[in-house]
Each structure stands twice: as structure tokens, then as C-alpha cells.
Design a protein that fits this description.
14% helix, mainly beta, 3 strands
């Protein structure tokens, strides 16, 4: 029996030196992967909201994601 659960979450990414930022996509992937608790979790990016500059150098981005988990097959717990 497959018991699945899913929820939507969000996390904020603050970039202190926007001018020195090389690849935003890599940072978003790092944030996505950090949301996993078990190895079989599936995290999908739903939306990326750019709030723009908050200071002369800092930038704020909101990353909204969907997490899906099969409760019968969690996999190993990820220990950070």
C-alpha cells in the first residue's frame, strides 16, 4: 500500500553580494536539495519570486517548493 503525503513550503534566499553572484540556478538547486529529509523525497520547485534589492548589495529571493514523500518507502534519513 502506497501512502503518500505532500506539502508546499517556502524558503527565503538572501544574497549579500548580488554583483558577485555567478550562477543563481546552482544556488536554487542547493536550496531544493537541502529541503529533503529522506533520500526518497521528491522536491519540485513551484515558483521563484524575486523581491529585488533590499540594500545596495543584498538581494532577496523566495523559493516555493512542493515536497512529496512515500511513507511506505522513505529511504535513509539524511543527516546534515
Amino acid at each position: 500500500m502506497e501512502i503518500k503525503t505532500s506539502y508546499q513550503g517556502a524558503t527565503e534566499l538572501r544574497i549579500r553580494n548580488w554583483d558577485a553572484m555567478d550562477c543563481l540556478g546552482e544556488k536554487i538547486i542547493e536550496v531544493r536539495n537541502s529541503q529533503k529529509i529522506y533520500t526518497n523525497d521528491i522536491v519540485e520547485i513551484q515558483q521563484v519570486v524575486d523581491f529585488g534589492r533590499v540594500t545596495d548589495e543584498a538581494h532577496r529571493i523566495l523559493i516555493i517548493f512542493n515536497l512529496k514523500r512515500d511513507l511506505d518507502n522513505l529511504g535513509e534519513k539524511i543527516i546534515l
